[in-house]
Specification:
mainly alpha
């Protein structure tokens, strides 16, 4: 295939990718990390200025350090404001460009544009990609995927044309990818796999040459250094945020069993991508040992098959090891967060699986015209099916309620979906539905501070003050910084005639952290407790901090009337 035809094929793949994800432009931000990372982040609203850049480079909010992703959000915010359509459009554009780059990189590396197109199509269109593309907070995935493809393009040029500058370009693209998301930490080893096949740099006739291997490893020392630095930064940030769970919370055997069981789910959803959800609850020590055994057997069988065929069909071993290398860091052996697995974790590992399948099918077809037509037709049908399924899955992400309801439909015991849906419904004023879901979330996860706090707020609105006091008290002990829960607990205490307890609760907040809302609530509690002078002082402090607060004059007037009545 000529370079012009490759460029045309890349453009067509990019257009097909954009078409498949076009419905995402009508989606809203969702109340799952979009708020934590984008919509409620003051530095983003300031746009691409010095303060914004400083925030992007230094912050580790959300348990992750990905400065380049945050810088890209700053650009969007500067150009369009915090608008979901703009953020989603950027994500779709990045993914479409990445799809074209993956095709060009694989076609140049292998000299086989047909299988390369299929692999790039799977990367772009498989429904397991939807989470990475349709979720605004997951831009780090699509950026990392783009820079991975660009690094492959640079690596092909560096290997075949030589030159220190070309190798420096590989390092640059990898660095940008790692600054987007540290998922590319194993990438230098993936390049080493490509040295074996298709580049044939590690030996001849399927035999490994130790001297060539040493040279290839030496060449990759700068890349390995970048990966090590990114890995250290990621672990430090996750540990500081509490995202890295301790070994005592989930035993090592349970984490290993869950990783093995999740492998079965990943492979099954690769073939038949149904039941996709934004969150899959971790089974803890209740993990299915039978499924874990199946996963271990599959891991061993595919590894053995690849090794046995390493000389006649090297792409099988290379593709499988590509998958394993990029899956292992996100397998859950080192548990981060509460999820058992995640769709987005398959963004790069899937490329390895697709390589193994595509080149095996193409090799089987050989030079037989009918067989090639059959293989090409099957590949085209698979990509069309993926595109249609992806369009449907994109619509699942149209808003928070749709996302959480869908997750409850396709998963079991999903406390995160129950809790998040309950919060959304509470904010929408659908109190009874909200309380039901929050209660379900708390039953499934009795230690969930979020579920307890929001259920307490719902019970307060329902007039069940004693239950609200119990729930909000427990939530505040775990998260004393939550002002909304403190205000809610104060209101519940006052409603039950416990104004002095409410005063003590509010005065526990240091003076330099007492917001006008807390001062106003303190004034109300002091009035109920009979301390009118204290209430006047609290209102004056609130008026100084927020002179435009409309509640303060009314409360001051009510306070004076009460003083006069005395």
């Amino acid at each position: 295939m000529s370079d012009a035809r490759k460029t045309l094929a890349a453009a067509l793949l990019a257009l097909a990718t954009a078409a498949a994800y076009w419905p995402a432009l009508d989606n809203q931000f969702v109340a799952y990390d979009d708020d934590l990372l984008i919509t409620r982040v003051p530095p983003l609203r300031g746009g691409l200025g010095w303060q914004g850049v400083r925030w992007a480079v230094l912050t580790g909010e959300g348990g992750n350090w990905f400065p380049l992703t945050r810088l890209s959000w700053l650009v969007d915010a500067s150009l369009f404001g915090i608008e979901p359509r703009a953020f989603h459009a950027t994500d779709v554009a990045i993914h479409a460009v990445a799809a074209a780059c993956w095709f060009l990189a694989l076609a140049r590396l292998t000299g086989s544009p047909g299988p390369s197109f299929f692999v790039a199509g799977i990367y772009a269109l498989h429904p397991l990609r939807v989470e990475s593309v349709a979720w605004a907070a997951s831009r780090k995935d699509v950026l990392a995927g783009l820079f991975a493809a660009l690094s492959l393009l640079a690596y092909e040029r560096a290997v075949r044309r030589g030159g220190a500058r070309r190798h420096e370009m590989v390092s640059m693209w990898l660095a940008l990818g790692l600054l987007s998301k540290p998922i590319l930490v194993p990438w230098p080893l993936v390049l080493l796999l490509l040295d074996a096949w298709p580049l044939g740099r590690l030996g001849r006739g399927g035999r490994l040459d130790p001297a060539r291997l040493r040279a290839a490893l030496w060449e990759k020392l700068p890349l390995l250094a970048l990966a090590a630095a990114a890995s250290a930064a990621a672990l430090a940030t996750q540990h500081a945020s509490g995202a890295l769970r301790s070994l005592s919370q989930i035993p090592a055997w349970a984490r290993a069993a869950n990783a093995s069981a999740s492998l079965v789910d990943y492979l099954a959803q690769t073939v038949w991508p149904t039941g996709l959800a934004f969150f899959y609850p971790h089974p803890g020590t209740e993990v299915s040992l039978a499924k874990a055994a199946v996963g271990a057997a599959l891991l061993g069988a595919f590894s053995g098959l690849g090794f046995a065929l390493r000389r006649s069909r090297p792409w099988i071993l290379v593709g499988w090891l590509w998958f394993v290398l990029l899956w292992a860091p996100v397998s859950g052996l080192v548990q981060v967060g509460q999820a058992a697995r995640a769709d987005r974790y398959m963004l790069l590992p899937h490329v390895g699986l697709a390589i193994a399948v595509a080149w095996t099918a193409w090799s089987w077809a050989g030079s037989r015209r009918a067989a090639r037509i059959a293989v090409g037709g099957a590949a085209a049908a698979a990509l069309v099916a993926c595109a249609l399924a992806t369009q449907a899955q994109v619509r699942v992400w149209r808003d928070s309620e749709s996302l959480f309801v869908h997750a409850l439909r396709v998963t079991e015991g999903n406390h995160v979906a129950h809790t998040n849906l309950g919060i959304v419904l509470f904010r929408a004023g659908r109190l009874d539905e909200a309380a039901a879901h929050l209660a379900a979330g708390l039953r499934l996860a009795p230690r969930s501070t979020i579920a307890a706090g929001w259920l307490g707020m719902a019970r307060l609105q329902q007039g069940r003050e004693e239950e609200a006091i119990r729930l909000l008290g427990a939530a505040l002990r775990a998260a004393p910084e939550r002002e909304d829960w403190r205000l809610g607990l104060s209101g519940a205490l006052r409603a039950r005639g416990r104004a002095p307890d409410a005063v003590a609760l509010l005065r526990a907040v240091p003076a330099d952290r007492a917001t006008p809302a807390l001062q106003v609530e303190l004034a109300s509690a002091l009035v109920d407790a009979g301390d009118l002078d204290g209430a006047r002082a609290a209102l004056r402090a609130a008026a100084e901090a927020a002179p435009g607060d409309a509640r303060i004059p009314a409360l001051m007037e009510a306070l004076e009337e009460r003083r006069a009545a005395r």
